[in-house]
# Entry
Amino acid sequence: MQCHACRKEVTISGRVGFRDECPHCGADLHGCVQCRFYDRGACNECREPNAERVGDKEKANRCEYFQPAAGPSGGPADDARAKLEALFKK
# Structure
């Protein structure tokens, strides 16, 4: 998985624990912004309809629906923006 804060690759064996942190920058890894269901355009910014609302999407939470995102998450708009920005990087 990729850390949302420092964008460095983080290797986790097994499940991401509620208290796991990025070894590079110390950011929480079990937060909404690290989840594959996170979508800024969705209701409560989550595509999982049964998940409870979480206030701070960057902080660790105890959501049982959490699944690590393959890359930076945020929904289709963020994915498109990341691809566009990659075109202009050298």
